[in-house]
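Homework help thread (please don't just give me the answer)

Our assignment gives two proteins as sequence + structure token strings and asks us to describe the second one. The first is just a warm-up. Here they are:
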Amino acid sequence: MRKIAQRLLITATAGLLILSAGFSVSAGQGQAEKLSLASFKSGSGWYIMAQTMARTIKGSLPPGSQVDVLPYAGGVGNPLLLAKGKADLALGFPVEAGLAVRGEPPYKRKVPIKALVGNLDISWYVFSVRAATPIKSLADIKKLKYPLRLAVMPKGSSGEWNTRKLLEAYGVSFADIESWGGKVSFVSFPTAVEMMKDGQADAFGQICTPGHPSWTQLATMTKLRFLPFGKKVVEDFSAKYGFNPAVLPKGTFPGVDQDVPVLGFATLVMTTDKLSDELAYKVTKALCTNQKALENAYKGCKAFDPKNAANVPLPLHPGALKYYREAGIIK
């Protein structure tokens, strides 16, 4: 009986050692994570970019981890998803993210946004008019009290906010335009393009990227004039909202016969202070060390240089800051 008891004790001890070793391996691998990344509607550039980012981030996480791409919200809505805890990560623009951090309209309260990776692409805000209009500058709209038929993105969108603020900088409101006999139509991007092509709209302001298919189509089929933004307006918007002085380069689209001063900005990946430092570090490192994969999926990321990834007008997450210091990007 004593020998049987000894054998049982040895067997049990061996089993415990094996289980202990198994637990050690599991602990070393880390616990699987589940993250969500907010982008924009399915098929958009942001959605395509986010799909590649999700795969890249997942590869840096423990086995069994999951990174879901949310196909909605966009520039204005993504900070709200972060604030409500409905997304862990999000694509965004410095302008809207900055408004959310400060709690300025359209945001009702401050959102603790932290930046991870910035300057992922090149974007501009541009304002165009049909070449047949007498409008040669934004100041002409007020000077002539022109009855402009203006196509604007839906209320609450980045495009609507940008257009409204730009016109206000020149002393023009949507109400002014309608009081002069004009019309302001809040429509989708494709509808705005069709309205401009068909002559139902005289002007349209919206976000633009190099080689943008919708802008290329519109400029090819309709003679457009891209209006330059005044130096003071660009400087004010850069200082107050996080834009940067930029130009729409000559030849970008048909009719762009010279460089046009516009407002520039770039996509960034953001989160909140709820994301752990460890995860923020891993996400930042994964994206900064896989630039080519991002570019292959979304050509706009060709402009992404990891050395400029920390150069954003927003507070960096401590985990991201750790990576940038280790990589020598921030001294």
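The one we have to describe:
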Amino acid sequence: MSVLPEAVKVRLREELAGRLERPVQLMLYVRPGTGRLILPSGVGCPTCDDARQLAQELHSLDPERIQLDIIDVSRQTSEVMDVPTLTLAACGEEPRIRWQGLPAGYEFATVVDAIERVSSGDHGLSEASMRALERLQEPLEAMVFTTPG
């Protein structure tokens, strides 16, 4: 069963066909799921199967430009331990965008927007913001937390 309705997939495929300029790399970090059973932290993953299906459907929209790697953190050493986690980067670069949890609902739109922006190289920042960032003397990690509520 598909996570995305067919009409949504058709619309996304058409939209992305005109906007994706260069390949992007999605990496999904998962742990074997346990269905909807809630277990202690670090055991199982009740939303990993849904996240995997969503990521695979995104990849299927344009497999040449939306590349996907799925990493099982229970089998590979990984710096990412919170699952599911989806990262996004231009191919050949380190990921700088990360979603923790299932990126569904309102968060799904941010994933699509980020894919388009990373592919085009358009960060969307104003000239004033770029000048302010250029004045930074040390590396900076910015974390943005959002919720529709």
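TA reply:
I won't write it for you, but here's a hint about the kind of observation we're looking for: The chain has one domain: 6-134.
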